Each structure stands twice: as C-alpha cells, then as structure tokens.
Amino acid sequence: MSKVRKIDFYYILSILSVILLLAVWWLASAANDSLADPGQTVERFFRLIENPIMGKPVSVHILASMRRILVAFFAASVVGIGLGVCFGIFPTFRRMFWPVFSILRPVPPLAWIPIVILWFGVIGDMSKYIIIFIGIIMAIVINTYASISETDPLFLKAAKTLGANRWQTLIHVTLPNSIPAIFAGMKTGLSTGWMSVVAAEMIAAKEGIGFLINMSMKTTPDTALDFVGIVLVALCSSLVSFILSLIERKLCPWLRLDVK
C-alpha cells in the first residue's frame, strides 16, 4: 500500500470513529427520552445564539474559557518545565522538594477549589487561574523530570568529550532530546486543565463554558445545553492540542509524528 493510500485510509478510519461516536450518542438518546440527541444539540446551539443566556453571546463564553485555560497553561508550562529541569539536573534540589511534590501530586485539583475561593474570592479570575494551574502543572513536571533524567548517557558523554559545560549540554543536548516528552506532558496537563476550568466555572463564574453547563442543571434539566458545553470543550481542547502538535512538529523535525 502506497504512502498516499495509507494516509487516506487513516483519515477514513478517523472519520468512521467520529461517525461511530455520533451513532452511539444517537442510540443512547433514543433509549432515554430525557437525553438530547445530536440534532437537538445542534438546534439548541443555534437557539443559544439567538437567545443568549444572561445576554452574553456564545463567543463571550468560549473566549472566557479559552483565556483562562491559555493563561494558566502558559504559566504552568513555564513553571512546570523549570521545576522538571531542576529536579532532573540538581540532586540537592530534588532531595529537598521532590517529597513535597510527591505529597501534593495525588491531590485532585478540584479538592483545592474551596481553599482557593476562600483565599482569593470568587470575584475575578485569579482563583480560576490557580485551580487550572494546579491541574496542568503536575503532568508537565513529571514528564519533564522523567525525560531529563533519562537522557541517553552516550549523548551526555559525547557533549562532555566535545567540551560542553553543564548549561551547554542542557541547552543543546538534554532539552532538545526531551521536547517530545515535555509536549506529551503539556497535552496531558491541558486535558486536566479543561476539567479544572469547567469545574471552576460551574462553581464560581458568570461566563464561560462551565457556566453554560451549570445553567443546564437549573430548574428543568437541559441536556441539550449540557451537550453544547461538552462539544465546545472538546472542540476548543482539540484546537489547542492541534496547535501544540504543529509547534512540536516544528521543534522536532527529526520525528515522524504521523499516526501509523
């Protein structure tokens, strides 16, 4: 099978998986009348455009969630990569702070919501940024540390033989070798971040996709609106992940990132 035919075949499989998901959704809604089907969800989306909740267009809610996730994601990436590098190359730093990190790591980000809200309040986005930040950073730290510490010793010996010092080795050998694992951690953290942003907006927000999902539970359950929020989260998350994949492709031209 030629490469072109393989690519076409994989695209067909991807499309079929989406169709299968829609079919399962449709069957589930047929078995339960209270569950909105895909057609009703699309109809509810257009009604939401015509009659915005609390007078705010859908775009405002999408942009609010995207702003929160991107700000927290950028901060978590910078801090998480920095911590992961420090854990990987500084044994003293690792011995001092890894136990603390290991204790906090299993705590779900949602468990921090009451404390963060009490500390920073519900007004403004600071509390939401912190909750999302906590949800994202753990995976980035772990992947960065693991990739830094597992750099091939042959690469390190070659750099040392060529006269590279610790920082030159880090910049020219260790970090480039760790980029794929770091991006994998960023994508994993992004997924957790979306869970955190939806939860935070459901509890303490007047705009955002999580707020829309929360409104679907007011008075009479509106499962169509709930599904609108779910689909929006999936689309927004896929968009950001796609952009990350493009950046990774540019930074790692030696990798074959196509699905095989």
Q: How would you describe the overall organization of this protein?
A:
- It is a single chain.
- With 260 residues, the chain is mainly alpha-helical.
- The chain has two domains: 1-35; 36-251, MetI-like fold, CATH 1.10.3720.10.
- It has helices at 3-31, 38-50, 58-89, 91-104, 113-120, 126-149, 153-161, 166-203, 209-215, 223-251.
- The chain is globular, with a radius of gyration of 22 Å.
- The mean pLDDT is 85.
CATH architecture of the largest domain: Orthogonal Bundle
Q: Would you state the CATH class of the largest domain?
A: Mainly Alpha
Element string (H = helix, E = strand): HHHHHHHHHH
Note the beta-strand portion: under 5%
Biggest beta sheet attributes: none
Q: At the fourth CATH level, what is the homologous superfamily of the largest domain?
A: MetI-like
Specify the structural class. mainly alpha
The figure for the number of domains is: 2
Distance between the termini: 13 Å
Give the mean pLDDT. Answer: 85
Q: Outline the low-pLDDT stretches.
A: none
| CATH topology (fold) name of the largest domain | MetI-like fold
